[in-house]
Amino acid sequence: MLDLSMGKSSNEYQKMADDLISSFRSLKDKNVRVFIIPKWMFWWATAFVFGRFIFINKNFEKMDKVSQVALLAHELCHVEDSIKRGFLQELFMLLYEGLSWGFDTKLSRRVERAVDLRTIKKGYGKELLHLELAREKKFSKKKLEKIHSRGYLSSQEIKSLMGKKK
Ligand SMILES: [Zn+2]
Question: What's the CATH code of the domain at 71?
Fold first, then answer.
C-alpha cells in the first residue's frame, strides 16, 4: 500500500483546506483530505483531485501562501464536481483525461474555465489573480498560451470578471 501518512507540512495544508471549506457548503461534512505525494506520480500537475481527495506535490509547497490558497480553492471546486459525479464517472474522466492529455484540450477547457469562474464567485478572485500573475511572471508566452488554452483564466480575464461582480 502507498504510504499516505501525513507529514507536518501536509497538516498545514489540510488546515488551509479546512478553513476554506467554510466557503464550500456542500463539502462541510465530506471529510476532504489533502495529501502530499511524490512528483513522479503526477508530474504534469501541481495538484489534482480524485473524489474527496486532493493530491499536491513539491511544486505546491514551493508556492507562496496566497497562491496556495487560490489553488486549494480551485481544487475544492473540483472536489465539489467530483463528489457530484460519483466514483465511476470520475474514474472514466480521469482515464480519459490521462489518455487525451496533450491533444484534446476541449474537456479541460470546459472544466477548468468553469472551475476558475466558480473560484471567483466564491470570493477568491483576489487570490486567483495573485496566482495567475505569479504564473504569468514565471512562464514564457508560449507556455502561457498553452495554459490558457486549457481553460485557465488569464489575469486580464480575472480582473474584468472581478470588475463586473461589483
Ligand atoms: Zn483545475
Answer: 3.30.2010.10
Decide: pTM greater than 0.85.
yes
Structural domain count, the chain? 1
How far does residue 109's CA lie from ligand 1's centre (Å)? 10
- Contact present, 53 and 82 (Cβ < 8 Å): no
Find the 46 Cα to ligand 1 centroid distance in Å: 10
> Residue 4 — pLDDT band, cuts 50, 70, 90?
low
Domain holding 107, by residue range, is 8-165
Helix, strand or coil for residue 32? Answer: coil
Best-predicted range by mean pLDDT (8-22, 95-109, 113-127): 113-127
Sign of CA dihedral 143, 149, 152, 155: positive
- Residue 2 counted as domain residue: no
Ligand 1 centroid vs 50 CA: distance in angstroms?
A: 12
Instruction: Kindly report, residue by residue over 106-128, the tens digit of the pLDDT.
Output: 888 899 999 999 999 999 999 99
Confidence of residue 165 (pLDDT cuts 50, 70, 90): low
DSSP 153: P
Ligand 1 center–CA 115 separation, angstroms: 7
User: Any residues with CB less than 8 A from the CB of 165 and at least 6 apart, and which?
Assistant: 120, 121, 125
